[in-house]
Amino acid sequence: MTRPILPAAELQRLEREAIDTGTSTRELMERAGRALATASHRMFGPRDTLLLVGTGNNGGDGYVAARHLAEMGAKVRIAAIGEPGTDAAKAARADWSGEVETLGEETAQADLVIDCLFGTGLSRPIDEAIAGPARRLFGAARRTLACDLPSGIEADSGALLTDLGAFDLTLALGALKPAHRLAPAIHRCGRVASAGIGLEAASDWHEIAAPDLPALDPDGHKFDRGMVHCLSGAMPGAIALSAHAAARAGAGYVRVSTSRMIDGLPSSVVQTEDATALDDERIGCLLVGPGMGDIPPLLTVALTKTHPLVLDADALRHVGEPERLNGHDAIVTPHEGEFVELFGELEGSKADRALQAAATSQCVIVYKGADTLVASPDGRLGFAPPAPPALATAGAGDVLAGIIAAIRARGMDRFEAACAGVWIHGRAAEACRVPFIADDLLAAIPSVM
């Protein structure tokens, strides 16, 4: 099941809408605090707990959570940076019967520390008089939990305004925010759980989840499962990885155009020198770029065909203006350097840049990295869940291109096919023993699927 992702301003709009229709801010705070306490109790048990609370509604959530945790049997303390500043937070503070100490250098550490300092509206660094003690307490705790988003993170871009360290668990309230899945914040959130608080959180942005792949037709044949045709270039090892990945990812027929036989490919992958093979109407996806080298005619040939395309690696260096891709049914898979070379230095967050690139090129963009995004020209945006850092290895992108091509060849919508490929790729990496090489991903693909 996919989880929606909403920018901070959209969550604030939904909160205002809920309030206008009869749900008080205090009730939303009660739901949030109760959800935070429940998540803490289920994940960590009734521990010696310290909540660090701010003066806004995020702090109010902390007062509510403290009350519920105490009722669940936890030993609870609160350290605040000041008096509550909103009516709802003041009411939550009044309902807390325990003491409230001032957060500072004298604040004693605890087994579990919960961050309720600052919410999604933070736009500047945290004062060191607050950040210093908080950083010390988080660092000394055995377990750490962040309410909605770790303090010090900008909600929409994932930027670290102040680095307070990495958390074990973050509980997203209402919906995930972009920062939960954008670097560098993605490396600070730990496991991200989510809790509904009664908001109707629908969005064209979502966390990429396990795909619903088309079922195989019991009466079907190999071409019904999709044909992937790959163009080989100067470095055949890369396209061999892609072709092998396409076969492992379920393509019914994989073929490679090559002027020389490529060693190491499965016997089921057909290698051909026939130039007319590209005119085969049964081709479900044409893949060009991995190992292409400095051979621009390969891209030119691919762009003269009407087959769905996956363009990767060297092909991206030879596109020129991204508008050249308008009118093509293409999925483009750049990493950061390739993205900048093709689209230039765009403004905004990574999410903003991915959507701009998709709109300009009219292609689905798989913007690779530690925080891979899949952007569609129609405004849909998929955020990949975290993948192992060992995935940053030579050839891993070639494997991803092959997986995506196989799924696209089966007839899936190109955005959905790209999201499915990204999810399978990441889970295949999780199934590999570290350290691994790209070839190891190939063997893991079938078990993931």
Fold and architecture overview:
With 449 residues, the chain is α/β, with parallel strands linked by helices. The chain has helices at 8-20, 25-44, 57-71, 87-95, 128-140, 236-248, 296-303, 314-317, 336-343, 350-361, 396-409, 414-431, 438-448, and strands spanning 48-53, 75-80, 101-102, 112-116, 143-147, 169-173, 191-195, 205-207, 227-231, 253-257, 270-272, 283-288, 309-312, 330-333, 364-367, 373-375, 381-383. A ten-stranded mixed sheet has the order 8-17-16-15-14-13-12-9-10-11, sandwiched between helices. It has a seven-stranded parallel sheet with strand order 3-2-1-4-5-6-7, with helices on both faces. A hairpin with a 5-residue loop joins strand 16 and strand 17. Helix 2 packs across helix 3 (57-71) and helix 3 runs parallel beside helix 4. The longest helix has 20 residues, at 25-44. The two termini are 16 Å apart. The model has no long low-confidence stretch (mean pLDDT 96).
Q: From N to C, what is the helix and strand string?
A: HHEHEHEEHEEEEEHEEEHEHEHHEEEHHH
Query: What's the count of strands?
Result: 17
Largest sheet: 10 strands, mixed
What is the topology, as strand order, of the major beta sheet?
Answer: 8-17-16-15-14-13-12-9-10-11
Task: List low-pLDDT spans.
Answer: none
The gross shape turns out to be elongated
Determine the fraction of residues in helical runs and give it as a percent range.
25-40%
Fraction of residues in β-strands: 15-25%
- From the N-terminal CA to the C-terminal CA, the straight-line distance is 16 Å
* Number of DSSP helical runs: 13
Mean of pLDDT: 96
Which structural class do the helices and strands define?
alpha/beta
Radius of gyration: 25 Å
